[in-house]
Predict the 3D structure of the following.
Amino acid sequence: MTDWLTRLLPGDTPVFRHTHRALAELAPRRDRLAAREVAHEILSDPFATLLVIHAINKRMAQRSGNEVTTVEHAVMMQGIGAYLEAARALPVLENTPAGQDAFALRALHGLVRRAQHAAWQARDFAVLHSDIQAEEVQVAAILHHVPEMLLWLRAPAEARRLRALCRQMPAEEAAATVLGQTLPAWRLAILEAWNVPEFTRDLLDPARTGQPRQTILAACIDIARRAEKGWWDEALLQDYQALADLDHLPLEQVIAIAHANAARAARGSTWLAATPAGAWIPMIPGPWPAEEDEEPQPSAAPRSASETVAPRDATIASVQASPAAVEPATVSVPAPDIPQAPAPLADAPQAAPRAAAGEAPAPDEHLACPMPDKQVFRDALKGIESHLDGSYNLNQMSAVILKGLHTGLGLTRILFAMVTPDGERVKSRFTLGIAADDPLRHFEFRLDGKDLFAQLMGKMQGVWINEGNRERLWPMVDPRLQKLVGAGDFYAMSLFNGSRPLGLIYADRGHGECGLDPLTYTDFKMLCLQAARGLGKVRG
C-alpha cells in the first residue's frame, strides 16, 4: 500500500469549525437532549458522521455485537453526555494544513455540499418509499463522499492530480492512474478500513443492484453530482425515471421533489463557501461554461457562500433571495399511504406560542400564496418531542401543532377537531386562519357515520383530496360537510393515541390559486404523526 493511501486509514480526523461549535453549544443541555438533536448536527458534517460510526462499530466489533448503521443509534450507544464531552477534544479542520489551503478547503466545502444534497434526496425518497429506517440510507449517502474528502484532507497532491486528470479523461481511467483501482472499489476499501458496517457498504456497492435502497442511493448520489453543473443534463432523466419507476410516480412529480430537496439542502448550510446545486435550478438551458484550471493564490481566502461567482452565460436566481423560483410545481396525484418513517431531525427549540384557538387572520391574509418556513416546521417537531413528559397542556400543545402547520408548511386554514367526551362525535376545537364567519368553524361529524371523515377515524390515516381523486372521493363526503369545506383541495388526517381516537386535523390553502403539493402532504402527515404523540402526553 502506498504511503499516501496509508494516510487515509483511521486516525486523528478533524471536524469543521461549524460542527465543533454546534456540539459545544449543545453540551450545557446534555441532560435534556434527545439523541436525534445531537445526530442532526453530526449529520451535517461527513467527517463527524464517519467518526461516530467508526468509533461505535470498532467497539461493537471487539465485543462481537451488532453493527450500528445510524448516527442517532451510535450517539445513544455511546451516551449523549459522553459523546459531547469527547467531541470537545476533536481537532478543528480549519486549523489543519488542509484548512489553511484555500483550494483544498474549497474542494472540501464542495464535497460537503454534494454529500448533504445527496443525503437530502436519498432520505426523502426513502421516506416516500415507506422506508422506516430512512436514516440508514441518509448515512450511506453521506459516507459515499468521505473517501474523496479524506484524500483532500490527507493527500492533497493526489487529490489535485485526480481532479486534473478527470478533466482530461474518463473518471475511471483517472482513478486507475492515481488510485490504482476503480473509484467504487477504492471507496469501499476505505470505508471498510474505517469500520463502516458491511450493511452500509453493501448499499454503496455497484455490484449489488436491484434493491430499492440501492436504486434510491445510486440515483440520488448521481443527481447531487450532476446537478452541480446545472439541471439540464439529459442523464438526470435516467435518475428521475429510476425513482419514478420505483414508486410508480409521475416523472414530473419526481422532478418536482428533486428540485425541492435541492432547495432545502441549499438553505441548510450557509457556512459552506460553495455554491449549492439548488442555485442552478432557474438556469436557462445551454452549455455549461468551461472550468478554470488555475488555483487561487495560496494567500487567497475562500469565497463566502454569498460571494461565489456564478457561471458565465447562465441566468440564475439565488436560492435564498428567490425561494419561490425553486419550489416544486403543484402536481395533483392520488394520495399515497402514510409513510411510517421517523420524523426529520429538528434544530434548536423555540418557545411555544400561546394557544391559537379561535384566532382568525386579517381578511386578506391568505390571498397571497404562503411560503413554507421549514425552520418553523422543524421547530414544531422539536417542540412536540421535547414536551412528551406531560409538561404541556392541551392548549399549549395544540398551539405548537397549529403553528407548525400554518407557518411551517404554509397551510392557511387549519382545524383541529377532537372527539367529544361522550365519544360519539368529532367536533371543531382549535382553528387557525379561519375567519369568524367561515362556516368551516362549525365542522362536526359523527364517529359512527359512513362519510369519508368518519371512515378516516377507523385508524390513523390521511387523505389528500385533489383533482386526481376528487371524482371518486368527493361524493363520499357528507353534503353538509361539503358546504362547510368548500370545493377545493385539502389534507385531512386522523390522530390516535394507541387504539384510542383523539380527533382529526384538516388543512388547506384556501380554494383560490394556492394549490397543494405532494411534498407538503408528506410533511403534513409527518407533523400529524408527531402531533398524535404529543397530544397523547398532554397533562390535564
